[in-house]
């Protein structure tokens, strides 16, 4: 994480005019190369805007996966983190896939190594293995099902109806939330997201008391004490949809603040406030923004299109196994 923070600190920022010119240059290249940008909601707003203006997509992990597969582009540029690039490559092996920044990873992915996870599964052989999309291709290859936060509850309800005991990895908060909502027999891996784990219920209660009119939107990677205060718990796309449809005019948002860009664009007359992080008396508060998502910028997109980035490659055997796990999710949610 330190590496990501240092990289972001050293980034040279462009002024507005330079950004506009760079966006136009990138759009031309995307057209000429038949390339498309697949962007996550947590990425910088200017890259989100570029993705939309150039005919690409801004979405959650599930829709990013689907879009890559159905896109007619020859080249996919993934603005997000590494597991998203790997998933795009697994689902579209004939396309060239590049990350905007190859160093962009995820604390959930990093905290779930293949050897440790393999041993965990081997020690619990009777359990069906579900993994969150935020994992490496090799972890997905070791699993029976891949899920995202937008479909996890539906898939677990289905598996629980068959009385199957489950392993869920790697996010413990999401695993506990799914367990609570479905009553399924779940053995959790103890990983966490460095962004969502920082939201604190004590401070959120204080903020909410001062603005009782605001609705609280929470991603299920947040701790249970924060989830309990929510008016809506859901994936990024579900929180975005709720903010559009609700009659409420003010929202406190407990997920990466990158999502607020899309929320403001779709509801310009509503107000969105970042949920507070860190505890009472803490001297340092997290910025509610993923250091790896922040590594995605316009220069990185240009670099990926210029042949200077390393292509995402997934070994055939891993890819084939992971494809089975991901395809089950895509078919279930079709
Ligand atoms: S916000 Fe959390 S879960 Fe998402 S990529 Fe960053 S570290 Fe991973």
Task: Explain what you see.
The chain has helices spanning 2-10, 16-33, 45-53, 61-70, 82-91, 107-110, 114-122, 137-142, 152-161, 172-182, 201-210, 224-227, 236-245, 259-266, 298-305, 316-332; strands spanning 35-40, 57-59, 75-79, 96-99, 128-132, 145-147, 166-169, 186-188, 215-218, 232-233, 250-254, 271-274. It has 334 residues and is α/β, with parallel strands linked by helices. The protein has three domains: 2-106 and 293-314, Rossmann fold (3-Layer(aba) Sandwich); 108-194, Rossmann fold, CATH 3.40.50; 196-274, 3-Layer(aba) Sandwich (Rossmann fold). The strands form three sheets. The chain has a four-stranded parallel β-sheet, sandwiched between helices. It has a four-stranded parallel β-sheet with strand order 6-5-7-8. The chain has a four-stranded parallel β-sheet with strand order 10-9-11-12, covered by helices on one side. Helix 2 (16-33) runs parallel beside helix 15 (298-305), helix 5 packs across helix 16 and helix 13 packs parallel to helix 14. The radius of gyration is 20 Å and the shape is globular. The mean pLDDT is 94. The protein binds iron/sulfur cluster. Iron/sulfur cluster binds at residues 42, 81, 106-108, 134, 193-195, 221, 256, 290, 292-293.
